[in-house]
Amino acid sequence: MNTAILRAGYGLDHTGFIESDVSIDNIDNDYVPCIRDSVESLRNSFQDQLHSVYLYGSVARGEAVVLKSDLDLIAMFDGKLSSVKLANLKKLAGELSQKYRSLVREVGIVVAYYDYTVSPSNYYENAFLKELCVCVYGEDLRDRFGPYKLTSEIAIRFNGDICEALTRTLKRLETASDEDFKKFSQGFARKLIRTYYSMVMVRSQIWSTRLHEQSEVFIHHFPDKESIIRTLLNWIDEPPTDREAVYELFKIEGECFTSRRCRAFFLIELKRQVSLSVLYNKWISLV
């Protein structure tokens, strides 16, 4: 990878707005049957509540690698799903993953709700839907949001609650089978990298959804964390088997974000980045 291209303005248009790198046209034909089957299965199972379906991740970028990439979907529903329906959705995702195991590592289906999504209070959270997703079924809500610039609001909402994810992951790792251990480890490794990147995305004014690029941006600002980031990237490429090493790293790195001191640092960093982003956007408007 040519890290020289990762400089201020990367992933942004000439006015400083985020440029999406996902498109229906980017989807490789190999994944179309899996997408269609997934959508049809969702329609059949949740006909009365399914509003729309969105695709994100490497398949939506056109960068998926057979057997190494996931098929990542967001299912948007009208009204909350009952616990029974949530269990059925989890079962459906497992069945689709098994059916297409020769193509994708996993079919993941994330739940979203229409009322929550269209609420004005969640406008910045919907940068994910606007910039990282493509609609593959139903009403496309993305036109209601954006365009977005790299601001502290985007950074705060970019990757969800790391504290909640840490607690959930550590609990799962304790009793996970060997196969689930690999899956949970890789999932949280990705989340850690994205969380680190969110700490510097505004300061750097670099937008990327690719983990290796996010890693380089973070390392540029925090070189002392390079060995940790490289370890996480290695685990994403090759699932780890050393349970003690994984648990210890996740616990130490994850708890950094739960500590009062680190959370205070994170907020100060984001506030500092607000002024930097204002300066950058003022400069970009003069170019």
UniProtKB/TrEMBL annotation:
Q: Which residues form the Polymerase nucleotidyl transferase domain?
A: 46-101
The UniProt entry, under Gene3D superfamilies, shows:
Beta Polymerase, domain 2
Keywords for the protein's UniProt record, in alphabetical order? Transferase
Question: What does the record give under GO molecular function?
Answer: nucleotidyltransferase activity
Cleaved signal peptide residues: none
Superkingdom of source:
Bacteria
The name this protein carries in UniProt is: Nucleotidyltransferase domain-containing protein
Q: Which organism is it from?
A: Psychrobacillus psychrotolerans
